[in-house]
Design a protein that fits this description.
mainly beta
Length: 111
Amino acid sequence: QLQLVESGGGLVRPGGSLRLSCEASGFTLEHYSIGWFRQAPGKSREVVSCSTYDGRTSYSDSVKGRFTISRDNSQKKVYLQMNSLKPEDTAVYYCNWGSNWGKGLLVTVSS
């Protein structure tokens, strides 16, 4: 059964860091690209970062220089290291492959 499960969210102060994990099951991660998306309250879902099967990465302008995506194909995990967090990073974060989505997890940046 194909599944994406996110973990690592929570509450953090502005300027702090969090690392999100996305664990994939039911398919061979190394053959596919994985994306992180987020949806803030009252806003539409937006792409944050992508990690392609051939090693390329991309970031939205709003997180470039602060977030880093990485993957461990042997562990079937994709990570999103988030540094210098801002209140506007508050959102539900989702892991994605094609039409498949994780359930999402809440990241709240607040003092």
